[in-house]
Design a protein that fits this description.
2 domains, 332 residues, 6-stranded parallel β-sheet, 6-stranded mixed β-sheet, globular, alpha/beta, Rossmann fold, 17% strand, 12 strands
Amino acid sequence: MLKKIIFLVFRNSYRYSSLGNFGKSNKYGDVLLISLGGRFKSFIGKILYYLKIGKFISIDGDPFFKNSNISINLWFGGTSFKIPKKYKGFLNNYVNIPNPVLYNEQRIFQIYPIIKKLCQINKNPSIIFMGGIFFQPTQEQYISEKFLADNNPNLLSNFELIDQKNFWKDISVKDERTKFENYRICKTYIREKIIMEIYKNFKKNVIFYGEDFKNTGIQFSKPVFKLSKIKKIYKGNICIDTGSITGSISLHPRSIQIIESGGLLLQAKQEDSQKIWGDLSNEIVSNNIEKILSDIDQYLSDDNKSNNILKKLFNKFYNSEEKINFLLKNVL
């Protein structure tokens, strides 16, 4: 029996891609989630909101819902810094990516992968990465290329170093925003070095999609935005996730896309890796360059191991509907 109807409202249709299966209308136990994405459907969502028919989740404040009794605003793919100043005071704002070195986000909306079927590893799997290498020091108040080069050994031997507050204690910044931009610079630098090492060691197996604004020399194919094509690319391949550059969380849009598509996820360590993955973290999470290269090598050469990981990922998230039901009933 239905106890609650929730409308997921977002004006920009491109959000269907980053929301993945959560962006589709679905029944989660006694909660019905109805997706209203795009210009026309989101307009219908606004009318229903003003009539107070049901509960509402807005994506990226477009439209923005003020009534905290019936709605929340989910700022997708970012921390509280993504919330525009005029909306920051509202207590129904949620984000989906925490940053461990800034402040404790009070309202986190954790989406889980929704897996439809178990997939097998491809006969000759490719190594897939989707993303960009684009953020770098541009102003004097940010950390420099020299700082990154000097700290290269530490950053690449311990990916979670930048998630520790002690790392930032001796780095002088004028405000939290500057610290946030410095964090993004470090996270992008780690991403760049991971991808470069993978490219160097497995050049014949890699297919990278995205943009390289830093001209690293890595060959990238054009970015892919259509969700159906993204799923085909990930399915049955070894898929690299270096994490969000804005924070540290294991289940974010990119990793969820990989899992929902039937890809074998290999991920750089995040602050919540042990909590999310448990024993599986030893098999898919890396805290340094050597570990991720070693994992790629063994999964390229052993289909049985690869299929075992895919099965474990499937088993871990086959009941995600229950977790999402609990989440929705707690926030609305």
